[in-house]
Design a protein that fits this description.
The chain is α/β, with parallel strands linked by helices and 756 residues long. It has a domain of 208 residues: Rossmann fold (3-Layer(aba) Sandwich). The protein has a six-stranded antiparallel beta sheet. A six-stranded mixed beta sheet has the order 10-13-14-3-15-16, sandwiched between helices. β8 and β9 form a beta hairpin. α6 runs parallel beside α10. It is rod-shaped.
């Protein structure tokens, strides 16, 4: 890579556009003091990214912009062009142009081949080519002695820069930034996992309950299917059995009715006034009416029983749902007061014989109880509505009392009828064949009616069972969904896995089926306690939270692996930097000795690595790891530095502090040239580094310049004639009264031909 061109526009004293072409290995820039020739070296610093305005001999950005008699510019720009055909700069261009502009408001702009970029982009591009804004390859006026005046640690930084090791520091800093960011991200991920964990644990418990509910639901579905299947088969078989059992009694009853009607018709034709027969007929008629009333009341009671059972189940369900609130505590004193008052009223009731007074006492007791309930129910949630149940129970009791009266009346009529029949039989036994047959048929008819009444009761019970079955099926569908209706597909099997015969099913006691129903009720209660509402939503949220936790866990592992990789990379970079630095020190020390003996005609010069300790405040981790007896406030950090050792020929001078100004200048030049020889930079800018040299040393200096020019381009700013004579191109800087620097150029080869 070669430096081909420099262009200044409005930079410091270069008000007008000024160009410098660097076609020769050594280019000299000369001019009187104050002409602005050192501004050229500062222009290089500026365009290569120097951020210290002080290093550019200014206080603020606008100090770099020309302000003079010809006017005041608002912008200063410097462009530098490199020949990049060897791709030293990591860009796929044969020519790379860097440009930097500064405005009066302090704003800076950076460009690479005309494209606006960041300062970081410029710094990275140059760092990979071992070029920097204020590196070893730009030695400004008065800075030649800087390498000797620097501390060992600062001198190490200069030498690392000369060896091209800055890229390692850049990579280490970038890796440390990435490591810090990775650790920060790791802490954030850990915080997110800690924040997520309680919710995940809660959802896991909910899911466990849901799984239990699901298992219980599946078991309930199986039990329900078995119950419904058994119940349906029982109802079908019972209906068939009742229908079969009713055929013969109904046929016999119809036949008896026809024969009785025929005999009655024959007897009614008789003109005899038989009072006994009239009485029997009247009793039979009344008895028939009473029996019909009894059957009607039986059916009414059956219907009321079904309704009462339904209401009791409803009340039980509502009471179960309110069970948490149904255990409110009642003060013991209130209970004792109620018991005492009720006991007194009951004692009075036991001794009272008057029905009306007894009723008033009972009403008073009821009032005490209702008042007690109203008083202590105020803080309790509303209990299930018992009014429909009480109404049904009242109707049931009323019908039951009516039935008892009808039964008593029927028994009384049957007794009177039997007595009348017996009396009539005794009175008309002889010659009354038709009447005896009629009464025999009527008795048989009564027996058949009793059988039919029994079957009617079974039919009424069957109807109630069917209603209960329908309600149970509806509840199963509401609880388990449409799958509950597929119970018909279930096959009933015994413990051996064989189908249960219908005979065995019908032979089973109804109490076993009732036990199954009660077990279903208990399972429904447990299922309701476990919950299960919004199961899909909970499962979806659980899967999302679980997946997020798994993602965070994977992210944390990746971050830990990345952090470990970055730590390993930093260690490798530190180790490689140390190795290359030590190898480079040896080479620079040898070259330093060579240049030093050339400059002084003998003597010794070398570089040696030293380790100096520096106290730094401890961090919290270091305080925990500190050994007993160590300083509690600070810890010692070993830093590697570089010391310079010289020994002049024929003198006892063996230290830098004992060197004269000229000797220090020669030593600085020898060390700078040694650093440049080991790792030659693409170009080297020397701003009056030869100012303190005498004629003899100037010749040696010139020889070293020519030697260095074989590896690097040299731009020297000088007053020294010997140095000028070694240049291939000479640029002269002049300044007129307007304070503007102007450039004149001469190529010595062309000048020599012109002189001839």
């Amino acid at each position: 890579m070669r430096l081909t061109r420099l262009e200044l526009s409005g930079f410091k004293s270069f008000a007008k556009k000024s160009d410098f072409d660097f076609s020769a290995p050594i280019t000299a820039i000369v001019g009187p003091n104050g002409s602005g020739k050192s501004n050229v070296a500062e222009a290089f610093r500026f365009v290569l990214g120097e951020q210290s305005i002080k290093s550019l001999r200014g206080k603020k950005g606008e100090d770099l912009i020309y302000t003079g008699e010809n006017g005041r510019l608002n912008r200063a720009a410097v462009r530098v062009e490199f020949d990049n055909r060897d791709r030293t700069l990591a860009l796929d261009f044969d020519a790379v142009v860097l440009e930097r502009a500064v405005y009066r408001d302090g704003t800076n702009e950076y460009f690479i081949n005309g494209s606006r970029v960041r300062l970081k982009d410029v710094t990275e591009l140059l760092a990979r080519a071992h070029i920097g804004a204020s590196g070893h390859h730009i030695i400004s006026q008065g800075e030649a002695d800087r390498v000797l005046a620097a501390s060992p640690r600062e001198r190490r930084a200069m030498i690392e820069d000369a060896l091209g090791l800055r890229i390692f520091h850049y990579k280490i800093r970038e890796s440390e930034k990435k490591l810090a960011k990775t650790e920060e991200n790791k802490q954030q991920v850990e915080a997110l996992r800690r924040e997520n964990k309680p919710h995940l644990s809660f959802l896991e418990r909910q899911v466990a309950k849901l799984k239990k509910a699901l298992s219980l639901r599946e078991e309930l579905e199986v039990r329900y299917a078995e119950y419904l299947k058994r119940e349906e088969r029982y109802l079908e078989a019972e209906a068939e059995a009742i229908a079969a059992a009713r055929e013969e009694p109904e046929r016999r009853a119809r036949e008896l009715s026809r024969r009785i009607a025929h005999l009655r018709a024959a007897l009614e034709k008789q003109e005899e006034d038989d009072a006994a027969r009239a009485e029997v007929l009247a009793l039979e008629k009344e008895l028939r009416e009473v029996r019909e009333e009894r059957e009607r009341l039986n059916r009414t009671l059956g219907s009321l029983e079904g309704q009462i059972a339904f209401e009791k189940r409803r009340i039980a369900d509502e009471a179960r749902r309110a069970q948490d609130a149904a255990h409110a505590t009642v003060p013991m004193g209130a209970v004792e007061t109620l018991v005492r008052e009720a006991d007194e009223s009951l004692a009075a009731l036991e001794q009272e014989e008057d029905i009306s007074r007894a009723r008033r006492i009972a009403a008073h007791i009821r009032g005490l109880l209702e008042k007690f309930l109203r008083t202590h129910r105020a803080a309790r949630p509303a209990a299930p509505d018992h009014k429909p149940l009480r109404r049904l129970e009242h109707e049931y009791a009323k019908a039951e009392r009516a039935l008892e009266k009808v039964k008593a009346r029927a028994a009384q009529l049957e007794a009177r009828s039997r007595a009348a029949q017996e009396a009539m039989v005794r009175a008309h036994e002889e010659g009354r064949t038709q009447e005896r047959e009629l009464f025999a048929l009527m008795q048989e008819h009564n027996e058949v009616q009793l059988t039919l009444s029994s079957l009617e009761a079974r039919a009424a019970q069957l109807a109630r069972d069917r209603e209960a079955f329908k309600r149970e099926l509806a509840e199963a569908v509401a609880l388990l969904g449409r799958g509950a209706a597929r119970y018909r597909e279930v096959s009933l099997e015994d413990a051996a896995g064989e189908a249960v015969p219908l005979e065995e099913l019908l032979a089973e006691e109804r109490t076993a089926q009732e036990k199954r129903r009660k077990e279903l009720e208990r399972m429904k209660i447990r299922l309701e306690e476990l919950g299960g509402a919004n199961a899909d939503e909970i499962m979806r949220e659980y899967e999302e939270v679980k997946e997020r936790d798994a993602f965070l866990e994977r992210e944390l592992k990746d971050l830990e692996a990345s952090a470990a990789s970055l730590r390993s990379l930093i260690e490798d970079l530190d180790r490689e930097l140390e190795e290359k630095f030590l190898q480079g020190i040896e080479k620079i020390s040898e070259a330093f000795h060579t240049f030093f003996t050339l400059m002084f005609g003998g003597g010794k010069a070398s570089l040696k690595v030293v380790r100096e300790k520096r106290r730094t405040p401890r961090t919290g981790v270091e305080e925990e790891e500190a050994m007993p007896g160590e300083d509690e406030e600070e810890s010692e950090l070993a830093e590697v530095g570089v010391e310079v050792a010289v020994s002049l020929p024929r003198k006892r001078v063996k230290g830098l502090m004992m060197l004269s100004g000229g000797e220090r200048a020669l030593t600085s030049i020898a060390l700078i040239f040694a650093m440049s020889r080991v790792n030659p930079p693409p170009f080297l800018i020397l701003d009056e580094t030869d100012a303190a040299l005498d004629e003899a040393n100037s010749r040696r200096y010139g020889d070293m310049l020519e030697e260095l020019a074989k590896e690097s381009q040299l731009i020297v700013i000088t007053h020294n004639r010997e140095t000028m004579s070694r240049a291939g191109v000479l640029y002269g800087i002049t300044m007129a009264a307007d304070g503007v620097s102007r450039v004149l150029s001469v190529k010595f080869e062309e000048g020599a031909q012109f002189a001839k």
